[in-house]
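Mods, move this if it's the wrong board.
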Amino acid sequence: MKENVIDVLMYLFESYVETEENPEANQNELRLELLQAGFNDGEIENALLWLDELTGHQKTLKYGNLDSHGIRIYSNFEQEKLDCHCRGYIVYLEQIGILSPPQRELLIDRLLALDSNDIDVEQIKWVVLMVLFSQPGQELNYARMEDLIFDKKMSSIH
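Not the wrong board. Structure tokens:
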């Protein structure tokens, strides 16, 4: 996947998160809208596949009994893709209760699926929102994450 897949995902998320519309209702119209917005077919296809895998993994991934006090050891590959700042931010989100250990694992899976060499904390924030939004019963954590993102942006403006 290209780095621009995150741009397609962010566009979709911003366009449909506040509406009652289901973006998958008519994928042909959705593809046309994305093409008109300037995205290419490859980016669109990869973004839609990424979203399908997000919902699919939630049904199939089993993490057993992940201890919330355990320490996540990252593989060499994961460390190459997620730098120290990214890993620290993920730990922070888990420590303040926005992410559970299974959600952390889903987040890491979806970040690695972006196939980008320069994942940063801003991208992590958006993917966290997508992960939380896609899971029933996570409205409070979603709202907390939104507050965390937008409060910091507003405070940097002043």
